[in-house]
Specification:
Length: 164
């Protein structure tokens, strides 16, 4: 068999081996052998499930995206706290359908995760044709403004990061 069969994901194998030893807090021969066996077998079993994903083309923009999302999480936490502490009857929750320009799985997953990480919004469903991301928002006064914000702050940078 070729090396690619025995080590289809060498970094994953190394990490599995190290984590196994750290979790068991021992360097006994039995745990070293078992950790090595698991580090070889698990990636071999998982390799057929792996699908090719787009690669990050602009890592600097990816770093800026991470900091933008972290900042948005902080701001959204404050906004949600103000909304929740205020009169609850003034809340206007809504489901919003956001049209998607991206089609690859990884960027769509990152977009949906970003929306869910930001307090006050959660991704609820992706349409079967991958053209719409359905989002539930805690308070929506302008649906089009929310859609424009998601597209400009999150989707557009993801398109640039992955060049898709």
């Amino acid at each position: 068999m070729s090396r690619s069969f025995w080590l289809p994901m060498p970094i994953h194998s190394l990490l599995l081996f190290i984590v196994w030893l750290l979790l068991n807090n021992t360097l006994s021969p039995g745990h070293i052998v078992l950790g090595a066996l698991l580090a070889l077998v698990i990636p071999i079993l998982c390799a057929p499930l792996k699908t090719e994903q787009p690669h990050v083309k602009r890592p600097g923009l990816a770093l800026r995206y991470i900091f933008r999302v972290l900042g948005d999480i902080v701001v959204a936490n404050i906004e949600v706290a103000i909304l929740v502490l205020g009169p609850v009857r003034k809340l206007q929750p809504a489901f919003v359908a956001v049209p998607l320009d991206i089609r690859e799985e990884l960027p769509i997953t990152l977009l949906a995760s970003t929306v869910s990480l930001t307090p006050g919004t959660v991704s609820s469903e992706l349409s079967a044709d991958r053209k719409w991301l359905y989002i539930h928002a805690l308070h929506v006064t302008d649906e089009q403004a929310l859609i424009a914000t998601i597209k400009s702050r999150y989707e557009t940078p993801l398109k640039e990061i992955f060049a898709c």
